[in-house]
Amino acid sequence: MTQKIVVNNNFPTTKNEIESIIANFDSIDQYIAKGTRNSIKKTTLESGKITTIKSFKIPNIVNKFVYRFFRKSKAQRSYEYAEKLIKYSFKTPYPIAFVENKATISFLDSYYFCELVEADLTYRELVEVENWPNREEILKQFTKFTFDLHEAGIEFLDHSPGNTLIKQVDDNKYEFYLVDLNRMNFHNSMDFDQRMKNFSRLTPYKNMVEIMAKEYAKLYNKTEQETSDKMWFYTEEFQLKFQLKQARKKKLKALIGKK
Length: 259
Fold this sequence. Notes:
Layout: E1 2-7, H1 15-23, E2 31-34, E3 39-44, E4 50-56, H2 61-69, H3 74-87, E5 95-102, E6 107-115, E7 121-122, H4 123-128, H5 135-151, E8 154-156, E9 164-170, E10 173-178, E11 184-186, H6 192-197, H7 206-219, H8 224-258
Antiparallel strand pairs: 1-5, 2-3, 3-4, 4-6, 5-6, 7-9, 8-11, 9-10
Helix pairs in contact: 5-7, 7-8
């Protein structure tokens, strides 16, 4: 096995420290999120800074080969996209390092390190809690944040409820941090449909879409009605596909359970 470690020279840590954390990763019991394949843990570095570590588990048999020879790993893309976002003056937890483990002809696992951001909420809370304090104003500021991403040609493909951290920095001012960065496109410019489709995964609720569409229309050369209709069209399209996918999974589980 070979191990590749890339460390941000602007952050107070070393390759040796990162290597030691990976070697002892299983013994770190401070989980932020625990999934069947990927998980996120946190630990304190020698500098006193707290890092989160996202562990990307071993990919399937096809991607073992693809990631070994042809495509950048999810950890490397997360690290590089974080650097790009910061270069464009957008917020994301500060990238610290990434680690890749490889065999001779296959890719094993990878890890992305970034600085912990203590958020007040994520976009998910706005979806799940209708009376969240100052909810409409947060949605408006989030829409402006997304518009600015689009103006910079940044298409965040995982623009979904759990992937924007929100911090309140004043009585009526909020900052937005993107996380889970390994799927992004960078364009010279984005057309109207690309922009509207980028909102499709955020919420199933039309009243939220209408607030965002109204705000986006103020910033872009389209009417409120046209913006709302297009944003809702892509939202419904995504929700239908999502529900069909969930139904297929449920049916498959039922069939497996009968055997």
